[in-house]
Specification:
The chain has 13 helices and seven strands. The protein is of the alpha+beta class. α2 packs antiparallel against α6. The chain is rod-shaped and about 195 Å long.
């Protein structure tokens, strides 16, 4: 059997398989029964035909007796009905003689048949002569003819008896042989029917086993899954019938269930991680608030004081003083109101502008600050207080004590996978060791000759890095680069979108 034919059989549905089995076994049993019926009927017909020759001889003998009887009646009474009956029986007897004469038997039987035929012809001639003489009123002649016919009839009957007995003996032997053959055929047919039944039972068992075995395995597997064992092995069924479709669907269901449970676990882990990050972020924000607002004992009193100073400056027509005080008030108001919020990049840049204005008033405009912001990027959401600490760090630890014109640049631009925010200064730069220490958020080191001042890892930088990592769930979100001493420093934030 070829692979294609085997695959076709495997892919047949259960309903069609059962239908094919029923039709196949029914056709085989029908053909066997038809053969048995035909064979037995043939044997019975042969048995019936055995005694046909005896029946034929008896009918011929009976017909001959009727001829002789009607001859006697006519000779006694000259009855026309007896004459008509005589003629009918003569015709019937001649027809039977022709059939008898055409049959071929053994040599003795053939001789007996020939004698019967010859004697019958002579008898019929004698009977006809007797009737003719009677009708011609020739009493002597019809008596002689009748007596001769009677003698011939006795001879014919003796031959009939002899031939009939001989054929009866032969037919009895043939009957015995045919009857034995019939019995043997019955036994053979019973054996054939038994073999067909056994074959049918084996075929039914094979087919039902192919149906029930996968179902039992599937039921056992379903029981294991119901107990919570999702790692149970699901044996694949090669057939594409209903069992194969059911097994494949169950396997997909178990796989989907496993994936769903894994997804739920990941979601729970992510939720736990998010809660943890939220707690960390809240702690970081509180720490930032303490660091930047530790001098504010009463912020509302400070705002009211600054507003009063701004109004006094405006009344005295001191515009610069008014702008300065207003920027300081806006700066501290942002610190107090936004330190626990998620803000837009636009609000962070505004805070940097306020801070630069305040610093330039303090240092008489010594800070050269530039902005390069691409359009459409300032509405991205970020944690509050991330840009101002970076700019403050560049001022305090980058450009404050340099002997050349200072410069700070804030850039916001698109990247391949998000947005880049870059704070660059042309100050004293950083070594690789210092960059590594800052990114690992280690405490700042001090050097002799610097009056204990911190280098580039100033106040709030490690807090900014921690909060950005927690907010965006990304470790390498901050990048610090420097070409070396007195070659400036660039701090870049890579915000994923």
């Amino acid at each position: 059997m070829g692979r294609k034919q085997k695959n076709r059989i495997i892919n047949i549905s259960i309903q069609n398989k059962l239908l094919m089995l029923f039709l196949g076994t029914t056709a085989i049993i029908f053909l066997v029964n038809l053969y048995v019926y035909t064979h037995i009927n043939g044997m019975i017909s042969r048995i019936y035909s055995i005694y046909e020759s005896n029946l034929q001889l008896n009918e011929m003998q009976s017909s001959l007796a009727n001829i002789h009887k009607n001859v006697e009646v006519f000779l006694d009474t000259e009855d026309t009905q007896a004459l008509e009956a005589y003629l009918r029986y003569v015709q019937d007897y001649r027809n039977r003689l022709e059939k008898l004469n055409n049959r071929i038997w053994g040599e003795e039987e053939l001789i007996a048949e020939k004698n019967i035929c010859k004697l019958s012809e002579k008898y019929l001639d004698s009977a006809e002569n007797a009737i003719a003489a009677k009708r011609g009123r020739n009493v002597v002649k019809y008596r002689e003819s009748y007596e001769r016919a009677s003698q011939l009839m006795e001879f014919i009957n003796s031959h009939f008896y002899s031939l009939n007995n001989q054929k009866l003996q032969d037919n009895s032997n043939n009957y015995t042989r045919l009857f034995d053959t019939l019995k043997s055929s019955e036994r053979t047919n019973m054996v054939i029917l038994s073999l067909i039944s056994v074959f049918t039972i084996i075929l039914v068992l094979f087919l039902t086993k192919g149906i029930t075995r996968p179902l039992k395995r599937l039921a056992q597997t379903a029981g294991e899954v119901a107990k919570g064992n999702l790692e149970v092995e699901i044996r694949q069924v090669q057939s594409a019938d209903e069992i194969g479709v059911l097994t494949a669907a169950f396997a997909r269901m178990v796989k989907s269930l496993k994936e769903y449970i894994e997804q739920v676990k990941r979601s729970m882990e992510q939720e736990s991680s998010m809660k943890e990050r939220q707690l960390i972020m809240e702690a970081s924000l509180k720490d930032a608030q303490l660091k930047y607002l530790q001098a504010q004992i009463n912020p509302h009193f400070l705002f009211n004081t600054l507003n009063a100073g701004a109004q006094l400056a405006m009344m005295e027509d001191a515009g610069k003083t008014y702008n300065y005080i207003q920027n300081v008030a806006d700066f501290y108001r942002y610190n107090v109101k936004k330190n626990n919020d998620v803000v837009t990049l636009y609000e962070e840049i505004e805070l940097v502008d306020n801070y630069i204005y305040i610093i330039n008033v303090r240092f008489s405009g010594e800070i050269n600050f530039e902005k390069k912001v691409e359009k459409g990027l300032v509405q991205v959401q970020v944690p509050s207080m991330i840009l101002q600490p970076l700019v403050e760090n560049s001022i305090n630890h980058g450009i404050r004590n340099i002997d050349w014109p200072n410069r700070i640049e804030l850039s916001v631009y698109r990247e391949d996978e998000g947005i880049g925010i870059r704070v660059w200064d042309n100050g004293i730069g950083m070594s690789r060791e210092e960059i590594g220490r800052v990114l690992k958020k280690k405490p700042p080191e001090t050097e002799e000759g610097t009056a204990g001042q911190e280098r580039s890892g100033g106040v709030g930088l490690d807090n900014v890095i921690s909060r950005l990592q927690v907010f965006f769930d990304k470790e390498d979100i901050v990048e610090i680069t420097s070409d070396g001493e007195n070659k400036g420093t660039a701090i870049t934030i890579h915000i994923p979108v």
